[in-house]
Design a protein that fits this description.
The chain is α/β, with parallel strands linked by helices. Helix content is 34%, strand content 23%. It has helices at 2-34, 50-63, 76-84, 122-130, 165-174, 210-218; strands at residues 41-44, 70-73, 98-103, 107-108, 114-115, 132-140, 156-160, 178-181, 198-203, 223-226, 228-229, 235-239, 245-249. Helix 1 crosses helix 2. The termini are far apart. The structure holds ribose-5-phosphate (R5P).
Length: 250
């Protein structure tokens, strides 16, 4: 029994190492292909993959004569990453035009539409992406999909105003979704976003028309932002299991 447990633990550790390496390779390739001596303002997404974009950016800033003037964060986590890497931290109101923004995704479909917000950061992420000339996704092979909702089974993350979470759950059920209020792990009660809102994860199954779904959801009072990012990313870099990086571009 103990041998089986050890073998299982070793297999899990190996799988995790593969995924981490895939994230690192996708991120390094994306940064190397999109950061040039012309780049001034960089958007920094949130999550575990974009950590490696910041790592690579910091390496290049130290070793090359780059002219990066500002990094714009999409969350508390991104802000900490920028500060810890010694990169110049700023905000959209000071630098409204971003040359390139890097971000992770929970799932990416054939048209590069994405589900984002697994870490509850989709509101600021979409604001930053909307101000970027280039929006680049970095991800591991598990996120590579054809239809949204096929790989990511937790539903579309919706940032919502706390005072209407219960009416929103009813309205989403009436639309055919299976919605749940996201609960915190080490705090009693719901997850509270960086903006003081709640998150509802609404499972719609396979999403054939994400553009129409996003339009419908954002029109509902109380839904501040959706985790559907449609027609925003033009490049998606996937770190693959075999160590290669696959680029899909729109
Ligand atoms: O709210 C979180 C963000 O949308 C992340 O970019 C997304 O969840 C992907 O995160 P990770 O790179 O950790 O898979």
């Amino acid at each position: 029994m103990a041998q089986v447990t050890t073998a299982t633990a070793a297999a899990v550790a190996l799988a995790e190492a593969l995924v981490t390496e895939a994230k690192r390779k996708a991120s390094y390739t994306a940064v190397d292909e999109h950061i040039t001596t012309e780049t001034r303002v960089v958007g920094i997404g949130s999550g575990s993959t974009v950590v490696f974009c910041v790592e690579r950016l910091a390496q290049r800033v130290k070793s090359e004569n780059l002219g990066i003037k500002a990094c714009i964060p999409t969350s508390f986590q991104a802000k900490q990453l920028i500060i810890e890497a010694g990169l110049p931290l700023s905000e959209l109101n000071q630098f409204p035009d971003i040359d390139v923004a890097f971000d992770g995704a929970d799932e990416v479909d054939a048209q590069l539409n994405c589900i984002k917000g697994g870490g509850a950061c989709q509101l600021q992420e979409k604001l930053v992406a909307s101000c970027a000339k280039k929006f680049v996704i970095v991800a591991d092979y598990r996120k590579n999909s054809m239809v949204l909702g096929e790989q990511w089974k937790l539903g579309v993350p919706l940032e919502v105003i706390p005072m209407v979470y219960a009416p929103l759950l009813s309205k989403l059920r009436a639309l055919g979704a299976n919605p749940v209020l996201r609960m915190a792990m080490r705090k009693a009660g719901p997850v509270v976003t960086d903006n003081g809102n709640f998150v509802i994860d609404a499972d719609f199954g396979g999403i054939q028309d994400p553009v129409a779904l996003e339009r419908m959801l954002i029109a509902i009072p109380g839904i501040v932002e959706t985790g559907l990012f449609c027609n925003m990313a033009k490049w998606a870099y996937f770190g693959m299991q075999d160590g290669s990086v696959q680029l899909r571009s729109a």
